[in-house]
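EI: anyone free to look at a 249-residue chain?
SC: sure, send it
EI:
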Amino acid sequence: MISKNQIKFIRSLEQKKNRRREGLFVAEGPKVVGDLLRAGFVPHSIYSTADLPSLSALPTSLSVQTVTDDELQRISFLQHPQQVLAVFRLPADASTQQLPPSSLSLALDGIQDPGNLGTIIRIADWFGISDIYCSPDTADAYNPKVVQATMGSLAHVHITYCNLVTLLTNAPCPVYGTLLDGDDIYQQPLTPNGIIVMGNEGNGISPAVRPLITHRLLIPNFNVASETAESLNVAIATAITCSEFRRRF
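SC: here you go
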């Protein structure tokens, strides 16, 4: 039986300040938990309603606490809990924040919506982008909503929070940015390496970061006959941009 203190503790991890203080975050569902375990994330505690194959990567020193469906509902952040909830230790922050000059990476400048961030992490994983650099005002990658939206891709993509101005100044690779006054991405030369900057949902790339963009890109609007949306959702724009880079290289 799970105790009231355990329930209160797990629920407290919904808040960023508590996650940072405890050095822990929550993941749910056999796939997400299994992927994190296989990637080497360190489990603190695991609660499950069933004996699941995805938990085979558990260290022998850690046992799974069996809970009822009702108990899982009480600790879950999902409307429909998925058999297992795990509390993991946060990975250590990177001691250096240097751009890899020979590969493609992403920079997120003030992405606020947890669903967008989780989807972008999943997109990066799909397109083989292993590094994402986030401004301090970007949503927390270990928010339960973000973790769930990644569908396990958080296990495969390295997330670094840093000052993007410092990171991009004198960058050892091209700095691409999606801007409404940019040049048609389908008509511009691209490179297999570089960093792609994606901006805030409402305001785009921040004024401090914009001057550091060396290649300004635009995803063109093909519906020229009538009024359309002013811009694309940032996660969709990220997918289109990454796809065009990978299509060429």
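EI: Strands lie at 24-28, 43-48, 65-66, 84-89, 104-109, 131-134, 158-161, 175-184, 194-199, 215-218.
SC: 👍
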